[in-house]
């Protein structure tokens, strides 16, 4: 584990037994001065609010262009994206970016023993959680076990064949559907940071809906990131001072529905086909890159506190903070 002092115990795992409903990442203001003024721009990309803060306006524009480029390659909502065409054709020669992300997705699928899986989309659709959230209790429908079991038979990133030399991806079977929603945003943040560095920027913050990277320092101080108190939306429960670190959070506090007195999270366990059911409210992952933080935040939430903590220990540059009920 990293030797930073954000967490106190030997596993780099800090468990807070709080009666909370959730948390989110906030970037708090800093008192330190800087010789250059900072500029912040905000845009709606990849289905979320993306905010970039830096001292170079032209570099910010180029960083946004990188995020938009990644979105154009990997969005399932764009019928012309590589992922949409791959889902339709089942075989496609892809760009280096898409190849890299798919290779990483398979790596994490194996590393997490299936807790992270980019083929889980059909199960998410079957549970229809986003619509059930807004339905009256008597109108909510939970899928039957036989339907879940049938769908599980063709869920799995092991059905993705990658020919890295030819950059060709093949999907086994006609029912496999890829969704990079749990990994593409983190990768887009990393590419934006790369572009900022290429432009000579040494201090910046890229925040894509809570997946963020703190580049260098802001002025003479580290960037300060806070976890918001879920009960007091305008208050922060804990702050972290970061430099050249990524953070991502996953949890069950915003999207869920209650059926027959049982709470159903929007995050599906790809191994069981059912919404995750454990004592975790949220997981925040600190890593050297945002792709890793993005993926592990979901995987650790799915695995639970004990197994998730063991997974985190396999990475030298990763630390986690779990908020549990």
What is this structure's SSE topology?
Blueprint: E1 13-17, E2 25-27, E3 39-45, E4 48-54, H1 57-74, H2 82-89, E5 91-93, H3 96-111, H4 121-127, H5 129-132, H6 145-152, E6 160-163, E7 168-171, H7 184-198, E8 204-208, E9 211-215, E10 223-228, E11 236-242, E12 245-251, E13 256-259, E14 262-265, E15 280-287, H8 290-303, H9 305-312, E16 319-324
Parallel strand pairs: 1-16
Antiparallel strand pairs: 2-10, 3-4, 4-8, 5-7, 6-7, 8-9, 9-12, 10-11, 12-15, 13-14, 15-16
Helix pairs in contact: 1-7, 7-8, 8-9
Q: What labels describe this entry?
A:
single chain, 325 residues, alpha+beta, T-fold, eight-stranded mixed beta sheet, three-stranded antiparallel beta sheet, 16 strands, globular, disordered N terminus, FAD
Provide a descriptive summary of the structure in words.
The protein has one domain: T-fold, CATH 3.10.520.10. It is built from nine helices and 16 strands. The chain has helices at residues 57-74, 82-89, 96-111, 121-127, 129-132, 145-152, 184-198, 290-303, 305-312; strands at residues 13-17, 25-27, 39-45, 48-54, 91-93, 160-163, 168-171, 204-208, 211-215, 223-228, 236-242, 245-251, 256-259, 262-265, 280-287, 319-324. β10 (223-228) and β11 form a beta hairpin. It is globular. The relative contact order is 0.21. Mean pLDDT is 85; it is low at 1-24 and 28-32.
